Amino acid sequence: MPDATMLAGGRPFTPLPTQPSFITLSPEEKAAGKWSRANMQRAIEILHRDGLLAISGAVDLEHVKALQESMTATSKQIKGSLKHLSQYNHGIDTNFLMSAPLADPALRFEDVFSNEFVIAVLENYLGPGIKLNLLTANCALANTNKRQNVHKDAPWLHPNCPYLVNTNLALSDFTPENGSTEFWLGSHVCSTGHEQVWLSHNAETPICDVAPDAVEERRKVRPGAQITVPMGTITLRDMRTWHAGMPNSTNEDRIMTAVGYAASWYPEPESRMKAPLSAEELLTKRTDHQLEFIPDEEWLAIAQDWDLASEASIKLPDVVGHRKSSKVPAGEREWAPLNHVADEEKFVRGK
Ligand SMILES: O=C(O)CCC(=O)C(=O)O
């Protein structure tokens, strides 16, 4: 926790943290497969306050090691094939998206891809009936020196309440040296389209980036910081929370898996994220989903192709608020979050 400072009259005042707050599962919770009431309350309080929660002890470390070995070998293969900036995330050659080995039954771990503790927290934070809608992984490449802009994973006008949560499993110790993510805790609460960058005054939707002046204002209140979390930590991130991928100055790729969930009321995407058929039983075991299960051979052919410029590549799910009006299905035109941004209020930056 940050140091306490003194208020007038000698009362201590502890500033809000800039590092994630942890909950460590107790042996009793693990044996019961169920949170204690007190830890559930703590988890929900942390998520509402910070937009980020770290859980330790929820995943078997042998599973983490096995995934790290497999995915590090895959990241090396991917690196050999990268030619264009469109193959990196956000066009910065520091970080790319990958898929976890979901078609390999030996690596399809229930505590990673359908974790009962994670799901129980999200059924309270997002509300009952959550849907698994996102399966990715992030690789912060070894020996890199560029950072991403501060952004939200929301190139759309997002609802002003918890609506999507991404859950990341750290496959190694994450430190500022190896490119641990920079998080701006608490930014999920005060954030609207007014803080996002728009490419023109008449653009229908903003892009992910947070406007630089909004970043500087937020720095005065609660600055961003690169997190330090041990291997095997699961972080739950409200998708509105500002963050950035950072350079990795070590010789080892830094990888985390990602499983994302949507609130039950979140609209059906026009195109769902694809997943291998052999993983359907596991991925639908505890929650509903917004995935399209396809034969494993078809999935394997595209699973590591994240080129934004390619039609054939695997794609993130599209979002109703991101579609051109002509493509919004009937009945969904009422997509209108509270944070309407008038054209003249938009922070505009060209490409
Ligand atoms: O890998 C990370 O640390 C985060 C990367 C990120 O935010 C992104 O690529 O959008």
From TrEMBL:
Key words of the record: Dioxygenase, Oxidoreductase
InterPro entries the UniProt entry points to: Fungal_Metabolite_Diox (IPR051961), Phytyl_CoA_dOase-like (IPR008775)
Highest taxon, organism lineage: Eukaryota
GO molecular function: dioxygenase activity
Ranges for region Disordered: 1-22
Pfam hit, one: PhyH
Protein name as annotated: Phytanoyl-CoA dioxygenase family protein
